[in-house]
TrEMBL record:
The species this protein was found in: Natronorubrum daqingense
GO biological process: iron-sulfur cluster assembly
Molecular function terms from GO: 2 iron, 2 sulfur cluster binding; 4 iron, 4 sulfur cluster binding; iron ion binding
Protein name: Iron-sulfur cluster assembly accessory protein
Top-level lineage group: Archaea
InterPro entries in the cross-refs: ATAP, ATAP_core_dom, FeS_cluster_insertion_CS, HesB-like_dom_sf
PANTHER family: IRON-SULFUR CLUSTER ASSEMBLY 2 HOMOLOG, MITOCHONDRIAL
Pfam entry (one): Fe-S_biosyn
Domain (Core) ranges: 16-120
Source lineage: Archaea, Methanobacteriati, Methanobacteriota, Stenosarchaea group, Halobacteria
């Protein structure tokens, strides 16, 4: 049985947001180091105004989802997305990259039409 699922009010109306196994492992490790319970808490993925292309991604840990969040569960990691952000990032993949120049979470977003030169902001 798959451990990947989606729940919440918007569960059937939006394309899945996926999380790679390595991204889930990294996030769960960070959740644990913060003393948060992964069965209730989760990673909030959101979009905010900012950056040279107009929009940027944000992430933080939340103790629990908001009532109107769509909740994704991949590899035991709960991901919370608010309705306003969902329209910009539906169908995206959250990954974790480790390399010589950078290490961290990366969103592969099929809705992006352009990104700034540094890759920190985008436009849909």
């Amino acid at each position: 049985m798959s451990t990947d699922s989606m729940e919440g009010a918007n569960a059937k109306t939006h394309p899945e947001i996926e999380v790679t196994e390595i991204a889930a492992e990294q996030a769960l490790s960070l959740l644990d180091s913060e003393g948060l319970d992964a069965t209730e808490a989760g990673l909030r993925l959101f979009v905010q105004q900012g950056g040279c292309a107009g929009l940027s991604y944000g992430m933080r840990f939340d103790d629990s989802p908001d009532d109107d969040d769509t909740i994704y569960n991949h590899h035991d990691l709960r991901v919370f997305v608010d309705p306003a952000s969902l329209k910009y990032i539906e169908g995206s993949i959250l990954d974790y990259e480790s390399g010589l120049q950078a290490e961290g979470f990366h969103v592969e977003n099929p809705n992006v039409v352009s990104e700034c030169g540094c890759g920190e902001s985008f436009r849909t």
